[in-house]
Structure to design on (312 residues):
């Protein structure tokens, strides 16, 4: 994905699900009142809300974005294009399965950022970020057109890399692709070697962890098949040869990921973050940073994601 999952796409995802599936993929019951935050409690620039309440166990809710808080949904300034935060791995996995995509590995993350060679015209740089240098803007951004499809950082740097992280964006994530303009280049737009946006900063990247048996055993990683389980979880083909992190409820990094039961992704053993996020120090955004080893489980203001498509 060139861009991270944004609030409009997660809204559209939710609006295709059954009541029970919605219940699993949000933080409040689909029967909640109009204007109730679906994921975040209305904080950290997450504007996804219940638009039309569902009927318990039968009729799904309808969701929309409402940055203005006026209960008129999906208006031009209602935040649809802001990266979607408060997504746990199980939420991202369900979205990827539904959309026919898959999780990336740590090696793929680095390849997407660095390109196909560290030699010749594409040399490696110590501490480099996704845009290929180790310099980064470090003052708070001043937004114009906030919440719209043209949200911009009016004071973004014209010389060094731009990214949303602890020194520049404290209120929450920014619009995906915000630093790419008519006059930006790879560095100032914060782009990876292949033109993928925000691989450093904004939301982190959920990646298959190479430093654990749970991650290394996720081989022949399949693309999603477009169908979730009745409970709203990513569900791969039972008895298939491929695996995703967290299948069969695995939270044990030392355990081999298996697909012997329902093959649903209900936990996060074998997944980790790369690339840094809002609230992080600049060093967390460097391509090579692998940070503290932990298994992310809960929804949080600095968790979102994207997927990849495997072509075999």
């Amino acid at each position: 994905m060139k861009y991270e999952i944004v609030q409009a796409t997660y809204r559209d995802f939710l609006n295709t699900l059954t009541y029970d599936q919605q219940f699993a993929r949000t933080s409040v019951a689909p029967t909640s009142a109009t204007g109730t935050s679906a994921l975040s409690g209305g904080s950290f620039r997450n504007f996804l809300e219940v638009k039309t309440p569902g009927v318990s166990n039968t009729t799904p809710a309808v969701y929309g974005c409402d940055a203005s808080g006026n209960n008129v949904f999906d208006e031009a300034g209602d935040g649809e294009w802001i990266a979607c935060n408060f997504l746990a791995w199980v939420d991202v996995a369900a979205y990827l399965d539904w959309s026919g995509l898959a999780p990336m590995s740590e090696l793929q993350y680095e390849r997407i950022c660095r390109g196909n060679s560290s030699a010749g015209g594409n040399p490696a740089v110590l501490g480099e970020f996704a845009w290929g240098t180790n310099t980064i803007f470090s003052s708070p951004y001043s937004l114009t057109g906030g919440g719209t499809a043209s949200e911009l950082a009016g004071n973004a740097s014209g010389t060094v890399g731009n990214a949303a992280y602890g020194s520049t964006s404290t209120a929450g994530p920014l619009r995906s692709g915000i630093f790419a303009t008519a006059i930006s280049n790879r560095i100032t737009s914060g782009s990876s070697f292949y033109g993928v946006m925000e691989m450093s900063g904004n939301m982190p990247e959920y990646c298959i962890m190479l430093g654990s048996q749970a991650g290394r055993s996720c081989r022949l990683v399949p693309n999603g098949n477009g169908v979730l389980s009745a409970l709203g979880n990513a569900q791969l083909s039972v008895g298939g040869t491929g695996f995703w992190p967290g299948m069969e409820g695995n939270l044990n990094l030392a355990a081999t990921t298996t697909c012997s039961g329902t093959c649903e992704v209900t936990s996060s053993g074998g997944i980790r973050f790369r690339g840094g996020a809002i609230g992080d120090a600049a060093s967390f955004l460097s391509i090579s940073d692998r940070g503290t080893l932990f298994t992310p489980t809960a929804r949080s203001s600095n968790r979102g994601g994207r997927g990849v498509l495997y072509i075999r």
Observations:
- The chain is about 15% helix and 5% strand.
- The helical segments are 7-14, 19-25, 89-99, 106-114, 186-189, 213-216.
